[in-house]
Amino acid sequence: MDKYPVTAVGFARMEAELKQLKTVDRPAVIAQISEAREHGDLSENAEYHAARDKQSFLEGRIGELEAYISRAEVIDLATVDHTKIQFGATVTLLDMETDESKKYQIVGEPEADIRENRLSLSAPISRALMGRAVGDDVEVKTPSGTRYYEVEDIVYI
Q: CB-side exposure of 80: number of CA atoms within 13 Å?
């Protein structure tokens, strides 16, 4: 069974979401299904079908989170070399083409979220950054073409 590396913050976030789903969302959906059943014919009851769909999604997410949590390996960021980019690093990069600075944190698969600038350890940019130091130039091959960055800062939170 494979372990998933996660940060302590990411692990806590997953546990909090699981608790929310089990203690608040699941009972609410069960109540919605029960209420919709009282409206009569289930074959034409849109509220009932919507609640069942929501329950199905919710149970799937609960199962997914339980699997991630059971296989999570929380990485202590205090034990990694802070002068180089490793798992858990928050990296500021200078895009050499646009002169824009971008900040990303390199995290495990279950906690990755591009909207929050958290990149999966397996993402092309993360793989290219591993082991680099401040001032290094990095070439990243992406599906949309090759990008060039300079490492401006490395922080471990």
A: 20
What pLDDT digit, counting tens, does each position of 65-77 carry? 999 999 999 999 8
Output the pTM of the full model. Answer: 0.82
Query: Are 112 and 126 a contacting pair, CB within 8 Å?
Result: no
Long-range contacts of 47-56 (CB under 8 A, 24+ apart): 54/29, 55/26, 55/29, 55/30
For residues 156 and 80, is the Cβ–Cβ distance under 8 A?
Answer: yes
Domains recognised in the chain with CATH numbers = 4-74 (1.10.287.180), 77-156 (3.10.50.30)
Strands (E), 76-127: 89-95, 101-107, 118-120
> Which amino acid does the sequence have at 50?
A
CB 74 within 8 A of CB 88: no
